[in-house]
Specification:
Largest sheet: 6 strands, antiparallel
Oligomer: single chain
Distance between the termini: 56 Å
Number of strands: 21
Strand order of the largest sheet: 13-14-15-16-18-17
CATH architecture of the largest domain: 4-Layer Sandwich
Helix content: 25-40%
CATH topology of the largest domain: Phosphatase 2c, domain 1
CATH superfamily of the largest domain: PPM-type phosphatase domain
Shape: globular
Length: about 575
């Protein structure tokens, strides 16, 4: 994920107490280390601790230091918005709790907070309170405020904050995105500056010191102080000198650095690995079982198809597969193995998994027990949640991408269609390939270039589970004839108990909800789907008048469910006594 065009910026900061005895402001800036520069970028933060709360200084300093430290440790696959939200939510809760642990209400940990994240060709703004972020556009020369103050006026001279960090248990942060151009300038300030210095004067001082932003910030602070500022004075000035984005020539050079490997056959040795057999081949890629010549370890080597050797979008996605796979560590997701030496060709390595794909396993096990299948589903869900924790969506979950080991363990394979928002935020001069998945199993929304996030994986898992329990697909073969939104929405779900009449209504209700054509009607999470597969949802126990022949089965499952619940309660009571 590295490229030649490195982000460059000119930065300056200044923060002083002014006429007050203590400086309760905090300001900071940090650029990612080289290996993270493309996926994380740079961050500027400013905070103004509320002076009426004695711990405002600590709150401001904690916010700035936490954001600057934690943002760069969030997964690279996460979007900027998801990363910052996952930092601010627990941080706000911590500040709120600290403020309420003390009887003296004046000891509140309350502060404003404004964050500017610069990544690829976009600026991401997060803001709460009355500190501000301005932009001086390189294109128009306009100096404008990008944030709005979260304050209300008591009088012409006095305002009070209505939103701030640590003020409430719930957090409502403004978020916006601005496109970047080289030469754009951003100015972050606390109210000790912008309440006393007109925007025109700030702009003049910025333009007066184009090559020394530390001096510019000091001059702005001095000007506000001369204007009789009654508060702490802090600011950060930042100019984009070079965007961290590639042009088409850079991209082609990076992607073609490694040549495609030749056709591989058993016995051939390459980079310290010996090919044992070809396991799979398609128009887009090949899989080989290889042996590490030093350790004897069996691995899987994936190579790109030579059909795409001049297709930069294909090559980028192939490289992305390894990059994403190497960042997901979960026992139910196949492990990507780092090569032991520098590669001479384009390929990547994975652990070798004994067993069969789920579709083959189902053929070999036609008499499948429900309890056995549920245990497999639990492991599939666990692996998928391992991906979702990294804010990545598989987008092509199907039986042939699920390995079942002899011990009935599960490994999810194939990262070829995975979507990671953190990567898609990065500009590329070529149009990225959009994964359409596999018709029978992937979310129909993909066919219309709509990303449904986790709900897309919910749909795929629903289809897989339906097939595991029935041997059929929820819409039969009718998906093949769908070419428009209307075609898909006119499809009729085939109840699973039409194939196996022992399946109860509540179980079928969970399947039906998971594979709904409309994403809004699906489960929000895989955990919710799994819960309804294991425990009857009362919403699905309502009898459908069209299912008269199903009443006996429904009654049986209702009675069984209540019996199991009673046994669980008795077991829990006995354990509690011990």
């Amino acid at each position: 994920m590295e490229h030649n065009h490195t982000f460059k910026a000119t930065v300056g900061t200044c923060s002083v107490a002014g006429v007050k005895p203590d400086n309760e402001d905090a300001v900071g800036f940090r650029v990612a280390e080289q290996r993270l520069l493309n996926t994380k970028g740079a961050v500027a933060v400013i905070a103004d601790g509320v002076s009426t709360a004695e711990a405002g200084k600590e709150a401001a300093e904690r916010c700035v230091s936490t954001v600057l430290a934690d943002y760069f440790t969030t997964p690279e696959t996460w979007s900027v918005k998801h990363s910052i939200q996952n930092i601010l939510t627990p941080l706000n809760r911590k500040l709120y709790n600290l403020g309420h642990e003390i009887k003296n209400e004046a000891r509140g940990y309350i502060t404003t907070l404004s964050i500017l994240v610069l990544k690829s060709h976009m600026a991401h703004l997060f803001h709460i309170g009355d500190s501000r972020i301005y932009q001086l556009s390189a294109e128009t020369g306009e100096f404008k405020q990008l944030t709005r103050d979260h304050s209300a006026g008591i009088s012409a001279e006095q305002n009070y904050l209505i939103r701030a960090m640590g003020m409430d248990t719930s957090l409502n942060v403004d978020y916006s995105v601005v496109a970047l151009k080289p030469g754009d300038i951003f100015f972050l300030s606390t109210d000790g500056i912008h309440d006393f210095l007109p925007e025109q004067q700030v702009q003049q001082l910025i333009e007066k010191y184009p090559d020394d932003y530390e001096t510019a910030c000091r001059a702005i602070v001095d000007a506000a102080s001369a204007a009789e500022s009654s508060d702490n004075l802090s600011c950060c000035l930042l100019r984009i000198d070079q965007l961290g984005i590639e042009n088409i020539e850079d991209l082609n050079e990076r992607l073609t650095r490694l040549p495609f490997p030749p056709e591989l056959s058993p016995g051939l040795k390459m980079d310290g690995y010996e090919v044992q057999e070809e396991m799979y081949a398609s128009e887009r890629s090949q899989l080989y079982r290889v042996r590490d010549l030093d350790s004897g370890e069996q691995l899987v080597m994936k190579t790109p198809s030579r059909n795409y050797c001049d297709d930069p979008a294909y090559i980028e996605r192939f490289i992305m597969e390894e990059w994403i796979g190497s960042r997901v560590t979960h026992p139910n997701v196949v492990k990507v193995i780092a090569p032991k030496q520098e590669r001479k060709f384009l390929y990547y390595l994975m652990e070798f998994v004994e067993g069969h794909t789920l579709d083959v396993w189902m053929q070999q096990n036609p008499e499948r027990r429900p309890s056995q299948l549920i245990r497999l589903v639990e492991k599939i869900v666990a692996g998928m949640e391992g991906l979702h924790e990294k804010e990545t969506v598989h987008q092509d979950l199907k039986p042939s991408n699920i390995m079942v080991t002899p011990g009935l363990d599960i490994k999810i394979v194939d990262f070829g269609s995975v979507y990671a928002p953190g990567i898609h935020e990065i500009f590329t001069p070529v149009e990225r390939e959009e994964a359409l998945g596999t018709l029978d199993y992937s979310d129909p929304a993909y066919r219309f270039h709509r990303n449904t996030g986790i709900k897309g994986d919910v749909y795929s898992l629903g289809v897989v589970v339906y097939e595991m329990f029935t041997g059929f697909l929820p819409y039969g073969t009718r998906l093949e004839n769908c070419h428009s939104y209307e075609d898909f929405y006119n499809l009729h779900y085939i109840p699973s108990y039409h194939h196996r009449d022992i399946i109860p209504l509540w179980f079928d209700g969970a399947l039906k909800k998971a594979v709904s054509i409309d994403p809004e009607h699906r489960y929000d999470t895989l955990a919710g789907f799994l819960r309804d597969l294991k425990t009857p949802n009362v919403e699905f126990l309502k009898e459908d008048p069209k299912q008269e022949g199903h009443k006996d089965t429904l009654l049986f499952w209702k009675m069984l469910s209540f019996m199991l619940f009673g046994l669980l309660v008795i077991s829990w009571f006995i354990m509690a006594q011990n």
